[in-house]
Design a protein that fits this description.
Distance between the termini: 45 Å
Number of strands: 4
Strand order of the largest sheet: 1-3
Oligomer: single chain
Number of domains: 2
Largest sheet: 2 strands, antiparallel
Order of helices and strands: HHEEHHHHHHHEEHHHHHHHHHHHHHHH
């Protein structure tokens, strides 16, 4: 009873802390639009030929199928950072000295993560109900509609919640490196749900396809008995209609057993690796992680040397310079911001920057836009993701904003982001200029202008780097790497001579900067 009480207390306190932020207000709006996009503006095509009668069960499967995949990717930014928040708010000292076991603390954090994602799932279910009442057919059956969310989405959210806890207890995975690894594992999970007999159905699509295949076979004797293709489209015509009865509870739960095992395994690793906030014996190795925290880098940049303090202290009281905001030294601030952006990374990160520069200088021209530049622009990810969020993470807003104009600092941060991005692909830019390739040059410059702007907007409004990290990785995977034009921020798939994508992303960069400025003004209010 004491252990469960401790778990509940940690979960309740953590969830209350998260629920107080006004940033969560935007989630219902996004989910309502997502439900409309899936149910009203799209059609689920099963096996290239069939689609379901829009009953309550069909609406539940329709939204839960794609919603689970989306939350698998974007649920991580919502829950990541809970343990880090305890570190930065000095709660860690109380936890370390409290009569609270590691398992009760970590399971409580997991339960808080899961509760938050369960609320998001409930809001998505509510948006689905509204869409069905407006567009659906037949009686409203909340059990049939809610079954896919309960049996498929919630177990996946348990895995996401456990991953959030596990990655924060491993020093190697606390930062950007952990986000990159999570994204790669999530993509593997999505791809693993494509084969009809996949043993680990992380997205629930295998269970949905098998259930729908049984319904189609019962209503269409000529059906072959298996479903390979499963797609959402807005151009479906002449589809065969079938009535889906909904998920079978027994088979759905059986397909979730590996998910429960993965959840337990992640929590077990968390308990074994948790250092109880003792950072004196940690080690890490990662391409994207910082060797020292941004707070330490900031302190080293801004504080006077220890010897100076010692000399001052020997003569009596320490005199401090008066605070003033009358003059803004752009060059000095830019250099300080650039130092904070570039220092403290792993040696492997600097080696990666050198490899990117060499590749941009010697790679064939045809591969620059499609391979070299997109991969090289992944290296500034740990720098860009801190833009706008660093002050909130380390709680230095009042200190920094009191001594400098916040909007000017915002502009300097953006210039630093542009500078780092430009530097890593500078040989490619020079080559484009020399051969007169305006399209290639515009695509690369557009990416360098847009990505830091998006990072600033995401960092200021979310207060965390994870949102931009996941969003950027998704866009990178779908756009330059897989040719989805909407996300192709470098224009790798754009026809020769066309600049539509570049214009769109340049406009998006301006919009992102406006959103970031509004967010910064809101922070000052």
């Amino acid at each position: 009873m004491s252990w469960s009480r401790d778990v509940g207390a940690v979960a309740l306190a953590d969830f209350r802390e998260r629920s107080r932020t006004s940033k969560l207000i935007v989630i219902p709006v996004v989910l309502a639009y997502f439900a409309k996009l899936v149910t009203v503006d799209s059609t689920l095509v099963v096996g290239n030929t069939y689609t379901g009668v829009p009953t309550a069960a069909w609406y539940g499967g329709l939204v839960a199928g794609i919603g689970t995949t989306v939350l698998l990717l974007f649920g991580y930014p919502l829950i990541h950072g809970s343990i880090a928040h305890d570190r930065t708010t000095n709660v860690a000292e109380f936890v370390a000295s409290a009569p609270l076991s590691n398992s009760s603390y970590l399971v409580g954090k997991w339960l808080s993560n899961f509760t938050l994602l369960a609320v998001v799932t409930g809001l998505l279910f509510g948006a689905t109900v509204v869409s069905f009442l407006l567009q659906g057919t037949g009686p409203f059956n909340p059990v049939d509609m809610g079954a896919p969310f309960i049996l498929l989405t919630l177990p996946t959210m348990a895995v996401v919640s456990a991953a959030g806890v596990c990655f924060e207890t491993l020093d190697t995975l606390r930062g950007t490196g952990g986000t990159v690894l999570y994204f790669l594992l999530a993509i593997v999970g999505v791809i693993g749900s494509i084969p009809p007999e996949s043993p680990v159905d992380l997205t629930g699509l295998v269970a949905l396809r098998q259930s729908m295949a049984s319904s189609i076979a019962a209503q269409y004797p000529g059906f072959e008995g298996s479903i390979i293709s499963f797609a959402y489209t807005d151009t479906a015509t002449d589809m065969e209609m079938f009535r889906w009865a909904g998920l079978s509870v027994g088979s759905a739960l059986l397909s979730r057993v590996p998910i429960f095992v993965i959840t337990g395994g992640l929590l077990g690793v968390s308990v074994l690796s948790f250092d109880r906030f003792d950072d004196t014996q940690t080690w890490s190795l990662g391409l994207f992680d910082h060797g020292s925290s941004d707070a330490e880098a900031t302190a080293e940049l801004l504080s006077p040397p220890l010897t100076e303090l010692s000399r001052s202290g020997s003569d009596g009281d320490i005199s401090l310079a008066s605070v003033t905001t009358r003059r803004f030294h752009l060059r000095r601030v830019f250099i300080a911001e650039l130092k904070m952006a570039l220092r403290g990374h792993r040696r492997l990160w600097y080696a990666g920057m050198i490899v990117a520069l060499v590749s941009a200088a010697v790679a064939p021209l045809k591969s620059l836009r499609s391979i070299v530049i997109p991969i090289a622009l992944l290296l500034p990810l740990p720098v860009w993701s801190q833009l706008g969020a660093r002050e909130q993470i380390h709680r230095t807003q009042e200190l920094i904003f009191a001594t400098s104009n916040p909007l000017r600092l915002l502009a300097v941060s953006y210039l630093v982001g542009i500078s780092v991005g430009t530097a890593v692909i500078s040989p490619a830019l020079v080559r484009y200029v020399l051969i007169g390739s305006s399209t290639g040059l515009l695509g690369a410059v557009t990416a360098v202008l847009f990505l830091p702007a998006a990072a600033l907007a995401a960092g200021i409004w979310s207060g965390r780097p994870t949102l931009f990290e996941i969003g950027y990785l998704v866009a990178w995977y779908l756009g330059p790497m897989n040719g989805l034009g909407l996300f192709d921020y470098v224009g790798a798939t754009q026809p020769p001579g066309s600049i539509d994508i570049q214009i769109g992303y340049l406009v998006a960069a301006v919009v992102a900067l406006i959103i970031a400025s509004i967010g910064r003004q809101r922070q000052l209010a």
